[in-house]
Amino acid sequence: MRWIVAGLGLLAVVLLGVVAFAQDVEEDLSAENVRVVAQMDAFGLLEEVVIGDLRNNGEMAYANLTIYGDVLDEDGNVIGEAFGYTVDQCGNAILDFPLQPGRSQRFVASLDLFEEGDIADIEIFPEGEAVEPEVATMPEDMPAITTVSDQEVVSVEWEDEGSLRYGVGCDQQVLTDYDWYRYDVAAGESTALDANPNEQYITEAFITQTGINQVSQSFEQDESLFSRSRLVFPTQTDRVVYQIDIHTVITAEVDGSFKRTIHRVLSQYTLQGYVWSPLGNFVAYYFGAYGEPVRYFTASAENGLISALLPDNTPSATVPGLYNDGRTVIISGTFPDAEGQDVTGYYLSSPITQQRELLFEAEELPGNNYPAPVYYRKDDSTRYIYVVRPLDDQAVLQCYHVEGGELTTLTELPLDLATDERAWSFMSADFNTLAIAANGDHSGLWLVDLTEFDACR
């Protein structure tokens, strides 16, 4: 769901509150970042709604949250009402979600204006049922891990080894829909950004040259296509990657010129994202829902398709990792060995010849909502693969030494993914820090300092 901020200026917010179960909701729950926006409804029409973030400042959790509001004009007269509920970053209602102490959650409320007038203030009245807070299930002793954010982080861009940008939003949208922050690793501080710096390139000329909003059959313009384009400005190359309405994947210069078609005939597949190598090669991966096999192809942003066409590549149970040259992927699944016996584990696979090589067996594979394996080539004879997966229901980070055939568990991770939640990993350019982001109820962004471990260095 794409939000378009209405030009109403910054709205003052007054929280009145409702008492529930002897808890002072007025003191415990506060509304932040409240504003009126124009939202695209199911029929493609714009409607004004109120959105904001509900923060729990108390010691109890709050369930069954409902949002009420009074809309006031400049004279303090009530000219309308608002009614809504908590949602995830994609706008999906999460009514049964208990808001834990110290955390915040997006809310959306419909507007009912019954008198004319300009909106000056919105008074928010949250109602909720106080419940016992969730018992922490995450391990506390993780000295190599730094928590950056508890928000729904879906994109990370390393600026250099000491600084990164991260985007909070819906993973089905594009960078212009995210709330962006810059994080200083040494200072341990996040700063809100007005926008992603790459938004400066998204001009009318860019839209025209890329054809990103053009309907293929009628050649008409449809602005809603932009949010479904999967447009990215990767840090590993000067070119952009996106898909058009019929899911053809294209690369172009940042001004939209010199387009190169990478892969056609993908309309029946759902693009979920890209995994990048330092050389500007990438694997585009596709699946429809949790539990479905992951389909993919590899390509160079500069030179085009590297792998076989997507339908001809060996499916993976998890999102594939990528070797630097784009000619080898790291997949998982159950495949027959030389004796015809099925072996479940992680494999190296050629997306050109489809030949496979077993890396290590794994009785428990993660779902397609876990991060892709990360490849690190230290030198000509030393290759490492970092893998995030569950062991005995606890997410861990492991490192596999390809030449030595050794698998080492480095640390437990603060990941707790439901089947409708996802996580991603982003390696710093110096390969010293691995950023792990997640959305959903246990969302966040964490940095793993790989120099804290003796293995795989």
Write the layout of secondary structure elements.
Blueprint: E1 3-5, E2 12-15, H1 25-28, E3 29-40, E4 46-56, E5 61-72, E6 78-86, E7 104-113, E8 121-131, E9 145-149, E10 153-160, E11 163-168, E12 179-184, E13 189-192, H2 204-210, E14 239-243, E15 249-253, E16 260-263, E17 271-276, E18 281-286, E19 295-300, E20 304-305, E21 321-322, E22 329-336, E23 342-349, E24 356-361, E25 374-379, E26 382-391, E27 394-401, E28 406-412, E29 423-427, E30 433-438, E31 444-449
Parallel strand pairs: 2-8
Antiparallel strand pairs: 1-3, 3-4, 4-7, 5-6, 5-8, 6-7, 9-31, 10-11, 11-12, 12-13, 14-15, 15-16, 17-18, 18-19, 19-20, 21-22, 22-23, 23-24, 25-26, 26-27, 27-28, 29-30, 30-31
Strand order of the largest sheet: 1-3-4-7-6-5-8-2
Low-confidence stretches: 1-24
Could you describe the largest sheet, including whether it forms a barrel? 8 strands, mixed
The total count of helices amounts to 2
Give the averaged pLDDT, no decimals. 91
Instruction: Supply the number of structural domains.
Output: 2
* Gross CATH architecture of the largest domain: 6 Propeller
**Rg result:** 23 Å
Strand content: over 45%
According to DSSP, the number of beta strands is 31
Kindly name the structural category: mainly beta
Q: Tell me, what is the CATH class of the largest domain?
A: Mainly Beta
How much helicity do the residues have? under 10%
Shape: globular
**Gap from first CA to last CA:** 42 Å
Write the CATH fold name of the largest domain.
Neuraminidase
